[in-house]
Amino acid sequence: MPRAQPQKHPFTDTTMQNETMKEPNAQDSSAVATNGQTQLRRLERIAAGEHLPSEIHPEIMDESAILEIKDFCLWYGAKQALFDVSMRIPAGKVTALIGPSGCGKSTLLRSVNRMNDLIDGVRTDGDMQLYDQSILAPDVDVIELRKMMGMVFQKPNPFPMSIFENVVYPLRIDGENNRAVLEEVCERSLRGAALWGEVKDRLHESGLSLSGGQQQRLCIARAIASEPEVLLLDEPCSALDPVSSGKVEDLISELAGQYTVLVVTHNMQQAARVSDYTAFMYLGHLIEYGKTEVIFSEPRLRETEDYTTGRFG
Ligand SMILES: Nc1ncnc2c1ncn2[C@@H]1O[C@H](COP(=O)(O)OP(=O)(O)OP(=O)(O)O)[C@@H](O)[C@H]1O
């Protein structure tokens, strides 16, 4: 499919800027005085049920988007977990989703490969498009979609089989049994996941015999074996020690360019290190979205700064 061309984004709304921009920055108050009136800050207003436009940085419009999320809402039964989220995910870049626990990061990630379809009572509105084609349309082949969206979870989940079989599992499911093909994919994927050197002499040992960090890189190798369009990483380092975590972080940076990566993380330093773009979410709303260096050094909204500097969350 052809790559999507950059488009003018309909959600670059600046109407809220005057009241939410960082100056003046009254850190010790939950309200801002404007023209004699007390005005609640953005996050309090969102918590009170208001819907405010996201602060989307214009640089995102310069990128070619592989995935476009449009006015996406999601409900778990009666509870709404995502509110009109609109984001363009740049092709070949790493985009980090950050925000306090329960703000909807994983829900958004799981919506991209329609894993939420598996949960009873989930309802969505809006759209998500991969290369301009809806991934939410009822006639979408969800199995094929999930092949295009490799997913890696918080806790490494190698299957109880050999390292080799773990990596080639997606091809086996497709009925591929040609040994030469499987060996080629296994080596390419393990090299891509920066694990080949460590396991090339023990491919027939169990995947469960690897260390936690190696297991996570094995899961990344399995995810890239089917050459997905997008890699979805849900807190991929949170169960790992710092050394293993560092290796997976290095790997994420290396995968950029080759793959589009969408990564959920609680770790601000990690988001700053590995991602090109960062989206800050709060209570199911996209608050601010822009280049990572800008989000972490001079965000437009004081709420973003408060979160990235650890003043709340
Ligand atoms: N299966 C589910 N059924 C009902 N509600 C759910 C379900 N999964 C998530 N939620 C709710 O949806 C909201 C968003 O949860 P989600 O796990 O997406 O947030 P998160 O930002 O990823 O949180 P965390 O950082 O703690 O993982 C929360 O209020 C959560 O309780």
Word description of this protein:
The protein has 313 residues and is of the alpha/beta class. The chain has a domain at 40-153 and 232-308: Rossmann fold, CATH 3.40.50.300. The protein has twelve helices and 13 strands. The chain has helices spanning 17-20, 42-47, 105-112, 142-148, 163-173, 179-192, 196-199, 212-225, 242-255, 268-274, 292-297, 302-308, and strands at residues 31-34, 37-40, 55-56, 65-76, 79-90, 94-98, 122-130, 133-134, 149-152, 230-234, 260-264, 277-282, 285-291. The strands form three sheets. Strands 3-13-12-6-11-10-9 form a seven-stranded mixed beta sheet, with helices on both faces. Helix 5 packs across helix 6 (179-192) and helix 6 (179-192) crosses helix 8 (212-225). The longest helix has 14 residues, at 179-192. The two termini are 40 Å apart. Residues 76, 79, 81, 99, 101-107, 119, 266 line the site of adenosine-5'-triphosphate. Residues 67-308 form the ABC transporter domain. Keywords: ATP-binding, Cell inner membrane, Cell membrane, Membrane, Nucleotide-binding, Phosphate transport, Translocase, Transport. One of its GO terms (molecular function) is ATP hydrolysis activity. It comes from Rhodopirellula sallentina SM41. Residues 26-35 have a biased composition (Polar residues).
List keywords for this structure.
binds adenosine-5'-triphosphate; 7-stranded mixed sheet; 313 residues; alpha/beta
The molecules bound to the chains, other than polymers, are: adenosine-5'-triphosphate
Strand order in the sheet with the most strands: 3-13-12-6-11-10-9
Distance between the termini: 40 Å
Give the DSSP E fraction (strand runs of 2 or more residues).
Answer: 15-25%
Largest sheet: 7 strands, mixed
Stated plainly, the CATH topology of the domain at 40-153 and 232-308 is called: Rossmann fold
Number of H/I helices: 12
Spans with pLDDT under 50 lasting ≥5 residues? 1-20, 23-30, 32-38
Structural class: alpha/beta
The CATH architecture term of the domain at 40-153 and 232-308 is 3-Layer(aba) Sandwich
- Helical coverage, percent range: 25-40%
Shape: globular
Indicate the radius of gyration in whole angstroms.
Answer: 21 Å
Q: Summarize the helix and strand pattern as letters.
A: HEEHEEEEHEEHEHHHHEHEHEEHH
Look at the structure and give the CATH class of the domain at 40-153 and 232-308: Alpha Beta
The CATH superfamily of the domain at 40-153 and 232-308 is P-loop containing nucleotide triphosphate hydrolases
Summed over residues and divided by their number, the pLDDT gives a mean of 87
The total of beta strands comes to 13
